[in-house]
Amino acid sequence: MASVSDQFEFTRPQALTLVAGVLQLTFGWLDLFDLDPNYRVVQLGVGVMGIVMAWRLAHARMYGLLLLLGFGMLAFSLDDLTAEGFMEVRTALIGLVITLARPAKRAPG
């Protein structure tokens, strides 16, 4: 496990959740993909939620599962290919990666 200190260990799913949250927040704030304003608000909320939930492994896993299920359902309801549709698929895949990521094994010693 990636150890930040002797008392606090940060696992891969937690690191992925933190990175995903920061990226979601950044993309929502900067509007790099010219998204619908309502979708930007959702993206900002998902970003903040990822940053907050990254501090515990169980919460990070729950965040990944919420992304996978929530945005996966939205992606399956796509009628046409839009920027928002691409973001839904991308976010669902990020959730899948977070959910399936294994924490690193302890180093011997």
Structural class: mainly alpha
**Poorly predicted ranges:** none
Please state how the strands of the largest beta sheet are arranged side by side. Answer: 1-2
Number of helices: 4
Question: What is the arithmetic mean of pLDDT?
Answer: 87
Largest sheet: 2 strands, antiparallel
Measure the end-to-end span.
13 Å
The proportion of strand residues reads under 5%
Structural account:
Keywords: Membrane, Transmembrane, Transmembrane helix. The protein is mainly α. The chain has one domain. Helix content is 68%, strand content 4%. It has 4 helices and 2 strands, in the order ββαααα. The chain has a two-stranded antiparallel ribbon. β1 and β2 form a beta hairpin. The radius of gyration is 15 Å and the shape is globular. The mean pLDDT is 87.
Salient structural properties:
single chain; two-stranded antiparallel sheet; 109 residues; 4 helices; mainly alpha
What are the SSEs and their pairings?
Layout: E1 2-3, E2 9-10, H1 12-30, H2 37-53, H3 57-76, H4 83-100
Antiparallel strand pairs: 1-2
Helix pairs in contact: 1-2, 1-3, 1-4, 3-4
Concise structural overview:
With 109 residues, the chain is mostly helical. The protein has helices at 12-30, 37-53, 57-76, 83-100, and strands at 2-3, 9-10. A hairpin with a 5-residue loop joins strand 1 and strand 2.
